[in-house]
Every structure is written in C-alpha cells, then in structure tokens.
Design a protein that fits this description.
Elements lengths: L33 E7 L4 E4 L4 E10 L3 E5 L8 E6 L4 E6 L9 E8 L4 E11 L10 E4 L6 E2 L4 E3 L2 E3 L5 E6 L2 E2 L6 E4 L2 E4 L10 E7 L2 E5 L15 E4 L10 E3 L12 E3 L22 H6 L3 E5 L12 E8 L7 E6 L14 E9 L11 E4 L10 E7 L5 E6 L10 E7 L10 E5 L4 E4 L7 E9 L11 E4 L9 E8 L4 E6 L9 E8 L6 E5 L4 E4 L7 E10 L2 E2 L6 E4 L7 E8 L4 E6 L8 E6 L2 E6 L4 E4 L7 E7 L10 E6 L4 E3 L3 E3 L9 E3 L3 E3 L1
Length: 679
C-alpha cells in the first residue's frame, strides 16, 4: 500500500448550483464561439466479472456541449447513463459486468453548434480467479457514517497494487470533485460542515494499469427493509448506554413510529446513544425543531447480515394478456436501467429482494411507457398507378413497426434512381396513406420510395417502385418474389399490378449473374411462373413487367436466386466382383424424374438410370483390373465425376467332394473336399 503523509485538508463536495454571471465593465463587440474540448476523457478499463465500472466523460465549449455515450449496447440491461453538469458530462455505469455481453468499445460524443468530438474507450472483463499480479485491491474501504449536521465526516479508502493505484470517489454514481470544503488526499474523502445535501452513497474506486476495483459501502439502515429513512434523537434524554431503540417512520421527517427494535451494543465506531419514542405524529416536525427538543441524525447501525438484501430481482413484461415476465437478477444497487425494450410500449415492473434465507415478496407493480422512436420498418405494399398523362396515384400500408404515432409520410420520386435520395423530389403526406403526384413528364419512367416518420424522426425507405407515365399501361407487378427452388428450375410469384386496361401478357427477363446471355419469356396473365432449364447451383437474376394493349409497364426491381445443388448419384462403390462381372452400387435420392449417367471402361460405354442405385457390368475378363469412369451430361454432374478401380476374380476349377465311407459311424458322415486349382 502506498504511504500517505499529512492529514487530508478540510474540504467539501458542493452540489452543482446556479451562480450569478459577472459581466466585465469593458465593452465587447463580439462573442467567440468555441468547439467542444474534453476536460474529462474516459480511458480503457478492465473490470472484474460481476463487478462495476464507470466511464466518466465531460467536455467544455461555447455554447455548452451536450455529451452522450454511443454504442449499440448502451440501452441494454445493466448499462446506465447518468448526466451531470447540465448535460456537459455523462457517466456510463455498467453493473454487474457480464462477458461477453458488455465487452466492447464505447464512444463518448460531445457536440455543440460549432463542432463535434469523440473519444472511444474499451472495456475488458476478467474472472476474479484469473486476476493478474498487481491488480488493484481495496484493503480498507468506506463505512457508512453517523454525522450530525455541520460536523466533519471523513471516509477512508486504502488500496494496494502494482503500480500504486489511484483512488477516486463517486457519490450517487457521479464523480466527486475537490471543492471549497471537500478534498481527496491519500485516498481519504473529507467533508467539513456537512449538510443534508452531502447525504448519499459514496463509492471508492482504485485503478491502475492492470484494472479497476470498486468497493461499495455496507448497507445502511436507511436502505434496509427493516427501518426507513429518518431516525430522531431527543437531545435532553440522551444517556450513555451503548444501545439504541429504533423506530420505523413512514415518511421523511415524520416522527410517529410503526415498529420498535432493540439492537445489540453498538460496534465499529457507531455513535452510542439511545433513541426515545416521540409521543405523537400529529404536530408539525418543524415546531419540534424550533423548540430545540431534538435534532435529526442520519444513523448507520450494523445489523445482522441476514436482515439486508444480498441482491435484487427485477421482473418486467409488456402490458398485454399473453406476455410473460422477464427477469433480471443479481442487481446489487437500488437503481437499474432495463434495456432492450420495445419503443412506445407500456410495461409492468416489480422488484423482489433476496438474502441468505430466500426471496422476499414482490413489490407492487409499477407501470411505465417507453418513449417513441423513429419507425423501424418502411411502409408496406407500396403501389403506383398512372391516372392521367402527367399524374400518378401512390398508395401504401402502415409500417409493421411504427414505434410510436405516425405523424406523416414522405414520398420521394425521381427519373434518375442513380442520384442520391437527398436530390430526389419530395411530396409530404399527412393523415393519409394515399396521394397523387402531378406534373410528371409523359412517357418517362419514375422511381418512387416512401418513408414514415414520428415525432422522433424518419423511418427507413420502402423498396423502389417504378411507374411509366403513359396512360393505360399497367403498373409494376407487386411483391415480386421467389417460390420453390430446385436444381434446374425456380418458381416466381407476384401480385397483379394496378391497371385500368386488361393485362394481356407478362414479359420475364432473366440471366445467369456471372455468365450467360439474357433470356426472355412471354406468357399469358397469371400470378406465378416456373422458369425451367436452368443450371444447377447457379445464381440467376429476374425482372418482370406486365403488358396491356397500351404497351408494356415498368419492370420490377431485380431479384436474384441461386438454384439448388443437383440431385446426383453419390458414394459409388464395387459391391461384388466375379470372374466375368462387377456389381456397382451408389446412393441416389427418391425422384420421379429420370437421371442417366454413363459408365466407361475398356473403350466401352454403358448407359445407366441413377434411380436403380445398382448396375452389373458384364462380359469382363477373369483376373483383370478395370478402371470405371462415371460421367454425366455437361450441366448436370459436369463431366467426369468419379473413378472406381476393381479387379475380377481368377478362374477356379473345383472338383466334386467325395464321401469317405470307411469313417462312417451311426451318427456321422465324413466328406473329403477337393483342392482348389487355378488356371
């Protein structure tokens, strides 16, 4: 532990207050604005699994910047952002640490009208049994203090590690800064002339290059389930006994008691005194104070450990009949941010406490609604139809995930879809899901996209819809998509387009993406089509347009699909070999369609149906080696696919067996087998 010399100077942590602005008597003609600069820059941290880390970020500038933490996990469970300094500072607190959930880089962003700056900090998490040598360890941590108003409070914290740890303090999760009457020296925090505003939860943090260690103070009576916030001491009745009579009070400052507890002798520096019951709670507490009958003390008594909550459990669910409670456990603080919720949704929340005995009863449910967000999905089923030589009607359906109340829609349209969307023309719509766009150029093809917006912002764009400004031509077929996919065919499905004229036919254009020529198919009106004769395991692109007597309409957006792997014979093997034949076997899936391949050997060819799963190769020579080559038509198996080696059996002459009658008995017969002769 690093040595500490000298007593810490008197000091006091002052809560932020609004102070008068002092104006100089020298006249000024301009006011220079400055971009943000960081005055507290967060650093990379390594925390212990199940522990706590706090990243502090603060900036200054003119105008005063706003500081925010940015990461996709910032709103997840166990992560909370606490602002201070009127939004110019923010603490990112993560508790309890979980790996790999919380291991990530977190970005602090400071922004004002002049500029924007960012800084990134990385969080690593390590198990307690794997801590490296020199990891900071808090050897002496803070205890809850009994302090009378205007007296001095000193909280000690000592830590060891290699290199020597640096000690900092947090009050109610915000960093404590030295002030006029507050100082941090050698790890101790001293607050002089304490007031009610100094009351809170103080945390000691030790950090060095190896990691971060944080010690939470022990539970106080003010936070236990046994006794609530305020205890009263009657000054004229104090006696010197080391015991205390404690009353539970229902509201801050009220004197009536709901229960009375006799505590064991006070230990560990807790001030010894006796509390006496106030006879009535009908009077005004301020009158008692003015008469000097008692003073308010904020007391800590170390109760037996089973009285305190070891941790808390939060259960929450969306307020709907079929939703189930989700649970977050292992919470060791009395404030927690629940992340991963749906926007603009009402939730029911309840809390239970756990200790060494078990789980206590849940609290009463509270209800809260999450805030709105921009829509998470685009408007659905966007359609466009020409109704005159220069006017198109556009209609759509509400997004699946509006995330709040839809305030309106924006319809973007252009003749050149390669331009950035920001350069397209915009048509705003409110309180409707249908609109008309006028003054379009005849015979041109327009691309249209629609988005929805809430009070928070814009949602994503819909897929492009194309429309040709030519009266009588059909609109674009809707919901163009892929159905069944096989090795040589792809099914295409769509919804009929909007059209004032009857649809006479459809035109389909497709081609292999990487190679091949463009193919065109025309067919009568329908809502699906099977494209056949394709190559297996090949990606194809498809576009479709409808045709009326007035002409062809706009083509759909291009869709792509890869055909399936071909159903081909596999696992060829030689199952049996005689002196003049070989039995080949293979695997092949059930199929109603014929699939033929060729077996080549010794300048001979044999055509085989793969569905048979076996074939006999006849008319071979005895005791001869053969190479069998399995091939198939190009475009199915792709030429030579397999090579199998086999050898026929040698010729064998076998004589007839004989019976040796000389060895016969009543129950046995002796047979003499002949020898085998090879040619």
């Amino acid at each position: 532990m690093a040595p500490c010399r000298g007593a810490p100077p008197a000091g006091r942590h002052v809560a932020p207050r609004t102070r008068p602005l002092l104006l100089s008597s020298i006249p000024t003609t301009c006011h220079a604005l400055t971009e943000p600069t960081f005055i507290k820059r967060p650093t990379d941290q390594m925390g212990v699994y199940g522990g706590v880390v706090s990243f502090v970020c603060q900036a200054t500038g003119d105008p005063k910047p706003q500081v925010n933490w940015s990461n996709k996990k910032v709103n997840s469970q166990g992560i909370e952002t606490i602002e201070f300094d009127e939004g110019a500072g923010a603490v990112l607190r993560i508790q309890p640490l979980r790996a790999p959930r919380h291991e990530d880089s977190y970005e602090c962003v400071a922004l004002n009208s002049v500029g924007e700056i960012t800084v990134t900090s990385k969080l690593s998490i390590i198990r307690e049994d794997l801590l490296p040598n020199g990891f900071p360890s808090i050897d002496m941590g803070p205890q809850w203090k009994v302090v009378e108003r205007t007296r001095t409070a000193t909280m000690l914290c000592a830590a060891s590690g290699i290199p020597d740890p640096e000690i900092s303090w947090f009050k109610d999760f915000l960093p404590v800064e030295p002030a006029q009457t507050a100082a941090i020296r050698c790890g101790a925090l001293q607050i002089e002339r304490s007031e009610e505003t100094d009351q809170g939860k103080y945390e000691c943090v030790a950090s060095n290059s190896q990691g971060v260690s944080l010690l939470l103070p022990c539970q106080s009576i003010r936070e236990s389930l046994a006794v609530q916030k305020v205890l009263m001491l009657i000054q004229k009745k104090v006696v010197g006994r080391k015991e205390a009579e404690v009353w539970q009070v229902e509201r801050w400052g009220h004197l009536c008691s709901a229960c009375r507890s006799q505590l064991a002798p006070a230990e560990e520096g807790v001030i010894p005194f006796t509390l006496f019951k106030i006879p009535s709670c009908d009077g005004n507490p301020l009158e008692f104070l003015n008469n000097g009958l008692f003073a308010v003390f904020y007391l800590t008594v170390l109760l037996p450990t089973h009285i305190f909550a070891s941790y808390y459990i939060i259960q929450y669910r969306a307020k709907s009949p079929d939703s189930k409670f989700e649970t977050v456990d292992g919470i060791t603080t009395t404030r927690y941010s629940i992340g991963g919720l749906y926007p603009n949704t009402e939730y029911e929340i309840r809390v239970s406490a756990f200790n060494t005995i078990g789980q206590g009863p849940p609290s009463n449910k509270v209800e809260a609604r999450t805030g709105e967000q921009a829509p998470a999905s685009p408007p659905r089923n966007v359609q466009a139809q020409i109704i005159s030589q220069s006017t198109v009607i556009v209609r759509w359906e509400e997004p699946e995930e509006p995330n709040g109340q839809i305030k309106g829609y924006r319809v973007y349209y252009t003749m050149d879809p390669s331009e950035p969307v920001s350069q397209w023309q915009i048509h705003n719509v409110q309180d409707s899901m249908i609109t008309t766009i006028q003054s379009l150029k005849p015979s041109e093809t327009y691309t249209i996209r629609v988005l929805a917006f809430t009070s928070v912002g814009d949602g994503p764009f819909s897929d492009p819809v194309h429309v040709k400004v030519l009266p009588g031509v059909p609109g674009q077929p809707g919901k163009f998509r892929v159905g069944r996919v096989q090795d040589t065919s792809v099914e295409l499905i769509w919804d009929p387009p909007l059209s004032r004229e009857p649809i006479e036919s459809y035109e389909l254009i497709y081609k292999a993406v990487k190679y091949g020529t463009q193919e065109k198919k025309s067919f009568e009106p329908r809502s699906s089509y099977m494209v056949e004769g394709l190559r297996a395991n090949t990606e194809y692109s498809f576009i479709l347009a409808a045709i009326s007597t007035k002409g062809i309409g706009a083509f759909t957006n291009e869709i792509t699909q890869r055909t399936a792997q071909a159903n081909v014979p596999r696992n060829f093997s030689v199952n049996l070999a005689t002196k003049t034949s070989v039995l080949l076997t293979w695997d092949f899936p059930e199929s109603s369609s014929p699939y033929r391949f060729t077996v080549e050997y010794n300048r001979q060819r044999l055509e085989v149906d793969a569905r048979l799963r076996r074939a006999v190769i006849p008319n071979l020579l005895p005791d001869t080696s053969y190479d069998f080559k399995i091939t198939s038509p190009e475009g199915n198996m792709g030429g030579l696919r397999h090579r199998i080696h086999a050898k026929t059996s040698p010729p064998i002459v076998i004589n007839r067996p004989e019976i040796d009658h000389s060895r016969d008995t009543e129950t046995t017969v002796t047979i003499i087998l002949p020898s085998v002769e090879l040619f």
